[in-house]
TrEMBL record, chains A, B:
Naturally occurring in which organism (per UniProt): Sinimarinibacterium flocculans
HTH tetR-type domain mapped to chain residues: 12-72
Stored InterPro entries: Homeodomain-like_sf, HTH-type_TetR-like_transc_reg, HTH_TetR, Tet_transcr_reg_TetR-rel_C_sf
Transmembrane spans: none
PANTHER family: HTH-TYPE TRANSCRIPTIONAL REGULATOR BETI, HTH-TYPE TRANSCRIPTIONAL REGULATOR RUTR
Protein's name in the database: TetR family transcriptional regulator
Entry keywords, A to Z: DNA-binding, Transcription, Transcription regulation
Residue range(s) of DNA binding per entry: 35-54
Listed GO MF terms: DNA-binding transcription factor activity; transcription cis-regulatory region binding
Length: 242, 242
DNA sequence: CTCCGATAATGAACCGGATTCAAAATTCGC
DNA sequence: GCGAATTTTGAATCCGGTTCATTATCGGAG
């Protein structure tokens, strides 16, 4: 009697359908114009059905954020598994980030909104829990890399704990994502440029901790080659053939 | 015939009253529970009167964010005027930030929300303009300090422009503010600690650019003394006597 | 002081979209 | 094929932001 299992699977599939539809609608019309009824309509269900899955519109948005965070985490996991020196793995984290945002261009805009008090509090406790859990491995993985680096002797934290260093890196990257995606603040700033900028800053921060750069920072070619190598070795299937 | 002038002044005062009331209500009940009608009520005006000032609820929130940004900018201006070495002035920027957030504890929460697409787009073009203008000097002041430092020969940007360096610093600080104020993400993280953390990271980033620390980073006392000195010399009137 | 047009304030009514829930439809095991 | 249980439906409800016709206030002219 696999009926129950099938139902559960179908239920989960539908939830996914709603989330995908919501993301498409946001991509097409902006978060401002997202209507719950349109999401349901796009999936050919009534609103009531959607509300069996999500406690509120905000709940749906947080669920969407979480779903994408899971994809993000998955990429980080691959980096953790990748056989390379700590500094290379750390660089691979930045590359993962770059590819992630390329694949989910609306993610940070939605996440920024979903994590505001107004939305966060309006989502269900369960979704909040899910979000926090989805993000936890990200921190752990990066902390692991920092620890490895310290153990290998190429990083001096100068009184900071690996956790604190990671918080700083995380804040820097998120800060840049937010800057780039914030409405109006940097309107004429190309998203492509921002990754170069982010990488340079991460590099600067790591240099400050005593980490030697992987390549001559002036040599743009070398950096490009490195990005290419990581893309091929770790994320080949996540990048559209160019 | 100063009638017109008086009216204008009264109009501006009332706008300020609405903004202050809104901030108090947010402090008391959270952004989630902010109602336009309650803001009007708190000021003993009808909603219609409030709507003579603000095109929408979002317009009010953005105006509030801008108002506080102006106070922030004002603090930065003082730093720019302060006679000190570039590195000291840069440190004073961090101190300004610390004091600012202490004085407006809800600011980043509100700003984070107000700068989301959903709110930003719903505000009037004029308010958006005002916000962008209020923030511009902040960047200019920090860039000025970086330039002075480069001119004094104690900073090597390593291929980055002063603007890029400032973007990185800004992103780092904002990223940490957001982390600290984001709901749930760092629930058990004391805001007080976060400044220490922020300062250390800024220090690390600047070290990466070749800037020598003002004091031995291990010596917490020395940092505290420096903060105290800047507080007294530059921001005496903005700090409640402790 | 009073009147009048202009200006500002009022708050009840309106409106749009999120949310609910009673009724209809479907599913499942027998 | 039947009836109970479950699921889906979408019209009705609710809520708070927004509007605007009405009322009150103001300032200057007579």
């Amino acid at each position: 009697m696999g009926t129950k299992e099938r139902k559960q699977r179908e239920f989960a599939e539908r939830e996914r359908q709603f989330l995908d539809a919501a993301y498409e609608l946001v991509s097409a019309n902006g978060l401002l114009n997202l209507q719950v009824s349109k999401v349901a309509e796009k999936c050919e269900y009534a609103v009531g059905t959607l509300y069996q899955h999500f406690a509120s519109k905000e709940d749906l948005l947080l669920a969407l954020t979480t779903l994408q965070s899971q994809a993000h985490t998955e990429m980080f996991r691959r980096v953790a598994q990748w056989e390379a020196r700590p500094r290379e793995r750390m660089f691979a984290i930045a590359v993962a980030d770059m590819i992630f945002v390329r694949n989910y261009p609306e993610h940070f805009r939605i996440a920024q909104y979903a994590l505001c008090e107004v939305v966060w509090r309006a989502a269900s406790a369960e979704r909040r829990q899910d979000f926090l859990e989805a993000g936890r491995p990200i921190g752990e993985i990066v902390i692991g890399i920092v620890r490895d680096a310290v153990a290998a002797g190429d990083l001096a934290l100068g009184g900071m704990s690996p956790e604190e260093v990671c918080t700083g890196l995380w804040a820097l990257c998120n800060g840049i994502h937010n800057l780039v995606h914030a409405e109006g603040v940097l309107e004429d700033f190309a998203v492509g440029d921002s990754y170069l900028l982010m990488c340079r800053h991460v590099q600067a921060m790591l240099n400050g901790l005593g980490w030697q750069p992987l390549a001559d920072p002036e040599d743009v070619r070398a950096t490009d080659r490195l990005i290419q190598r990581i893309t091929n070795e770790v994320f080949h299937d996540l990048c559209p053939a160019q």
